[in-house]
Amino acid sequence: xxxxxxxxxxxxxxxxxxxxxxxxxxxxxxxxxxxxxxxxxxxxxxxxxxxxxxxxxxxxxxxxxxxxxxxxxxxxxxxxxxxxxxxxxxxxxxxxxxxxxxxxxxxxxxxxxxxxxxxxxxxxxxxxxxxxxxxxx
Length: 137
Prior knowledge:
Blueprint: H1 3-9, E1 27-32, H2 40-59, E2 68-73, H3 79-91, E3 97-100, H4 104-117, E4 121-122
């Protein structure tokens, strides 16, 4: 079972110190929130919360024995750039999971990349419906 599968199947309570570290530490977490452009006013705080949560989790021993490391990118409220940066996060940065893409249009833009590369993404708002993917939560 790879680390991405473990992350996806673990309940929130599993984000506590665990046994021996898995190979490939630290575990990289992609943070995909607009830090510029029209959505920055809403998404900058989401980036800050993710960084705070990563820091707090590391203070509590990391995840599955690994320290977490945030890889922050700025899609600049540019929907095609969300897809481009998702590809970069998954292939170049080799993140285990991506948090971000607050708007439905940004999620629709990155979905084909997530599905093609079997990436895992969590977004921070309720689902508006009409879409379903095993790669997006």
